[in-house]
Write a structure and sequence with these properties.
49% of the residues lie in helices and 10% in strands. The chain is of the alpha/beta class. The structure holds adenosine-5'-triphosphate and magnesium ion. InterPro entries: AAA+_ATPase, AAA_lid_NorR, Homeodomain-like_sf, HTH_Fis, P-loop_NTPase, Sigma_54_int, Sigma_54_int_dom_ATP-bd_2, Sigma_54_int_dom_CS.
Length: 336
């Protein structure tokens, strides 16, 4: 796993080992790669690895985030522009494709490219030629392209927001970064490594910290919609904020980085009732999701929740009675 460590790609689950093997394989070919995966799954790290493991490692790695630039700016950033091509263009600029000559251009959030930029990029992929904005001369560059997106590009093709021919060109070597929730034991391994690093880094300023076993169990069962980035932030926050040497926090207690269903509480009625309603709603959802994950097995659900079985089964009964009609309909998903 030396390569993986060199690129800071942590994880030893079979799912991730498969991804690492694919990265090594893909790196050997000098062909366009499309990296897909949810936010925070490590698409940019993977793109780095593909570049530095391949023959172009000695050349430049130039990243550009297409989503962060306006439509017109993306084109001049990528292809460069001639002097006077637009109001601010006092001087000609070569553009990132030219800068990446002999190396790799990493196009992040490629789904954000305008249709005009998509057309120019397609031509560049087909024959390695391009034109600066406002220019007529055809230029050439020897660039490997790695593109990334967390959007469903096939759906964008269907809704005609992304060119089908461009997608086919990009998809020759697809690389999918799996979500953290599908990487089994990696969650705990990553959390532990992030914590170890913080302990090392702050060794002179802070007492060493460790996770409570219940926190570890909760980390393993949280679904991490913001993936590795969210996990890393969780560990950092807890390491810095927790006064105790043992971290007890549960990931559910933090509004997750990329999901906002923990909506701001509305002001309706007395605090005490509002709080009771919120707790009841939380318990109901928590119990339902724990039971679903445990395939209806109360002991297993209790273990995952870090509760003893009798307390947890009381909760299950409480919410099952309330939800009786619904439970009958959905017998398989909720009933033990
Ligand atoms: N396997 C991994 N091991 C260690 N750290 C990781 C891993 N995957 C991702 N990270 C860390 O998580 C963060 C997000 O990674 P990265 O920027 O590569 O994700 P991304 O898929 O490009 O996300 P986005 O779609 O939001 O741009 C970074 O801090 C990165 O170092
Ligand atoms: Mg990224």
């Amino acid at each position: 796993m030396d390569d993986a460590l060199r690129f800071n790609l942590l994880g030893s689950s079979p799912q991730f080992a498969h991804v690492l093997a694919q990265i090594r394989r893909v790196a050997r070919f000098d062909i366009t790669v499309l990296v897909s995966g949810e936010t925070g799954t490590g698409k940019e790290l993977a793109a780095h690895a593909v570049h530095y493991l391949g023959d172009r490692a000695g050349g430049p790695f130039i990243p550009i985030n297409c989503g962060a630039l306006s439509e017109s700016l993306v084109e001049s950033e990528l292809f460069g522009h001639e002097r006077g091509a637009f109001t601010d263009a006092r001087q000609a600029a070569p553009g990132l494709i030219s800068e990446a000559d002999g190396g790799t251009l990493f196009l992040d959030e490629i789904d954000a490219l305008s249709s005009k930029a998509q057309a120019s990029l397609l031509r560049f992929l087909q024959d390695g030629t391009y034109r600066r904005v406002g220019g007529t001369q055809m230029r050439q560059a020897d660039v490997r392209l790695i593109a990334a997106s967390n959007a469903d590009l096939d759906a964008l093709v269907e809704s005609r927001r992304f060119r089908r021919d461009l997608l086919y060109r990009l998809k020759v070597l697809p690389l999918h970064m799996p979500p953290l929730r599908e990487r089994g034991e990696d969650v705990v391994e990553l959390a532990q490594t992030f914590l170890d690093r913080l302990n090392q880094r702050y060794i002179d300023d802070m007492p060493g910290k460790r996770f409570h076993p219940r926190t570890i169990a909760a980390l393993a069962h949280h679904d991490w919609p913001g993936n590795v980035r969210e996990l890393e932030h969780f560990v950092q926050r807890e390491f810095l904020m927790c006064e105790d040497r043992v971290i007890h926090a549960m990931p559910d207690h933090h509004a997750s980085d990329s999901r906002s269903h923990a909506a701001e509480p509305r002001f309706n009625g007395a605090f005490r009732e509002a709080k009771a309603r919120a707790i009841a709603e939380f318990e109901r959802r928590y119990v339902a999701s724990a039971m679903k994950r445990a395939h209806g097995n109360i002991s297993e659900a209790a273990r995952m929740a870090g509760q003893d079985r009798s307390a947890f089964s009381k909760l299950v009964r409480k919410y099952r009675e309330k939800a009786e009609p619904a439970v009958r309909r959905e017998k398989h998903s909720v009933d033990p």
